[in-house]
């Protein structure tokens, strides 16, 4: 049997925006958003090349296949599976670059999910995560799956292990996410660079209790327990200074009723959890006002959690 | 209304043995065992004194009220609640001292649970944990509730917070615990003393994933996920050298089918989780044999998890 379905020449896939870290679960927890996402279309080529045909994006992105997360992931997946057919990629960026919403992960995921649509025997979601990670790696400089995993699986995901890849989908109560993206430049690589290579044992224990309690809160769908548990004693204090007005914006979110507010991924965006859409709108306004008091403009999105992850169109 | 019931002169309470740390959840997770426990009987006195009348134990224990975990916890609870009546304590130790089964916690818990039996308005389990902790503090030198909390609540408990005290009871699949107590001397205080005050960030992330996955495994009652998740990358490597033959005994347990094997609390005992009673018996024998090959004698207990915790008799 051929690796590729004979009658399929073009597949498009959509992959949602994501938020990583969530305040607990640094590098291991992430969630998928319903608001926006990237779409990648793959078309078969006869010349065995992986080529980026077009990128629709407001900001410039590399057209060189080995520097683009989508084409690099496709290239790795083709190599590994022994696919010799070439593909042209069209990338439609719905996610603003540097918004802290997992744009690089979404492009890579949409690309491998589209490629999976060509396969006679599609591969598992875990393997899609592994291939998309190659793309994420060129963008962030590390093999962190906390955006890629929720992008593929949807919902809130825990990465138990990267090698072998194991992702656990967590249950969760109804939640609305507010993402506020301040117009500040924070690069993922430098946000990682400032982190201390060690954690104090006492903080490790306290943060472990918060993480474990948050997992309980998700399973019990207990919003009040989530409110008490979503705290970050380790990463947030180190990165807060990268975002002008960070603690004021966070406090504004909490005062407006947010369950929690924290850096989304490595920032500069903030993620706040809210119980209702109306609540989320108040929280978003409070956060934008707090940023304005620091002369910082910001975009925002309000989104429920996307339960299903990336899919072919 | 009087603080104490008028017609109650004597109350006995039983508190179960416990195991702390479990391989994941250092200082925050613990469980109650069904095998053995301590019983404390409180009898009212007219002279307003807290007096230890008798300790039935194979090993010597301090009779001085401020040095004994049970009497010190009772004293603190009386002070805090404004109880001026005196009490005589009889302590029946079912748990061998230094066995890593929470003997000091059990005496303190049995004592405060017995005292609670005198109260016209009994206090909450959380507050009982707080008072018993005063007793535990003199024994271990720190305010660690990972034995006291499961002793009071039963089951497998997560301590989300000590101040304010918040304990979460976790669900769990049917499990049999094997506790093997080698005849080696490891003091809790020195076992804490050898721990590095910092944790590498990378280990912190990996261990967080293991902890979070183990919490998922408890909620999902998924024994295979538990098997993949119960690992200790941080504490075990630092303490293993305190226990002669540690890694051989651990491996023997795993080879015999245990879900996991780790130090129980600060050791020297080991705790292994098994899926059945017969399985637990094989695992226990394999662990005893492995200790013997290192010329170490050991006692052992096989026990299901005690679901209810301490109670008045």
Give a short summary of the structure.
Two copies of one chain form a homodimer. Chain A is of the alpha+beta class. Chain A has helices spanning 69-81, 103-116, 125-140, 148-153, 188-193, 201-220, 223-229, 236-239, 246-255, 277-293; strands spanning 10-20, 29-45, 50-56, 86-92, 156-162, 165-170, 176-182, 198-200, 260-263, 270-274, 298-304, 311-312.
Radius of gyration of chain A: 19 Å
CATH architecture term of the largest domain in chain A: 2-Layer Sandwich
* Beta fraction of chain A: 25-35%
Largest interface: A-B, 35 and 35 residues
- Report the CATH C-level class of the largest domain in chain A: Alpha Beta
* Stretches with pLDDT under 50, minimum 5 residues of chain A: none
According to DSSP, the number of beta strands of chain A is 12
Roughly what is the average pLDDT of chain A, rounded to an integer?
93
- Shape assignment of chain A: globular
Q: Helical proportion of chain A?
A: 25-40%
| CATH fold field value of the largest domain in chain A | Ribosomal Protein S5, domain 2
What number of domains of chain A? 2
Question: Biggest sheet of chain A, in brief?
Answer: 7 strands, mixed
Total DSSP helices of chain A: 10
- Tell me the span between the first and last alpha carbons of chain A: 25 Å
Tell me which oligomeric state these chains represent: homodimer
- Compressed to H and E, one letter per element, the order of chain A equals EEEHEHHHEEEHEHHHHEEHEE
